[in-house]
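User: Second chain of the day. Same drill as before.
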Amino acid sequence: MRKSRESDFSEDEIDLTKLFRVLWRRRGFIIKVVLGFLVIGTLVAFTAKIEFQSSSKLLSENSSNSKNALGGLGGLAGLAGINLEFGIANTGSLSPELYPEIVKSSPFITEVISSPLQFESSDSVLSAYEYFQFYDKPPFLKSIFWKIVLFPKEVIDLFGEESTEGGDPLNSQVIQWNSVTAALMTEVENRIEISIDKKTGIISVQSKMPDPIAAAELNDIVVRELTKYISDYRTRKAKANLTFIQERFDEAQDIYIDKQKNLASFLDRNKNITSALVEMEYTNLQNELGVSLDVLKSISTQLEQAKIKVKEDTPVFSVLEPTRVPLSKSEPKRMSILIIFGFLGFFIGSSYVLLRKTYFSS
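Assistant: Same format as last time:
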């Protein structure tokens, strides 16, 4: 048994030695393939679009409070694979796990892409929609690739029916996009990333643009719209209740003022008149005024409570790391591109040599 194992090990060593010999004999070919891929990688690295990335970090007060409320129970549940925070978030607020889905939703992207941005390379203010539609130019290699890919579709569209889509694609109650708008929406959507640290509850938002100032402004818009969306969602029920009570308060106040006017008018009409009927009417008017005042006070108390409820339900976000204008580009990472293309060339060249050797030897 021991001899058989030793023989297997020796065969493996012999096979590896043969492989290295084959590769060494054809090293010239492999080097040429690697150099060819390095040339391609250099073209990709130096023609790729320059991107700047801006980021910020937030902490929701509600998420920290929910963690404190769980205490040790949350830790024990986490060890068992149970997420108690999701259930707590659902009772009164959005779960942080849904934040990335909100940011990727069509209404959210529509709002973001329509917001004005300041560009360092331009004195004018443009929305992301306008910039990517009229001013952005794709990299040279990418533009050639897409021209080749989309050439059959352009030929079909040339002989097909004309598109009937029109109007403003961003100002409509019903979402109806043409191919250009859909592509621009996807472009902006891919430039926004949001992640949630489940342990700390920290919300990280990252946005990238070809311009450093535009990248910072886009990130600031995403943060502002996200916090607004979450606040509106959390306070929607409380605000609806506040609106209802405010309307009832206005009605009760109008009734109370009418009762006051009725009593004052009655007193003006019956000066220096002593009569049991007058006294009874006066008492009735005073009682009606007192009832309307009690109702007004009661609704006023409810109104103040509703206002407090709106304040309580409004989430507070603490900015841990504010949005900053990036000082250096984040893409392209040219050295990484060259290393990847170099390894890819070595792998393809070596695989070709070994497969060719195996094919001819068989």
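The chain has two domains: 1-48+332-362, 49-331.

User: Great, on to the next one.
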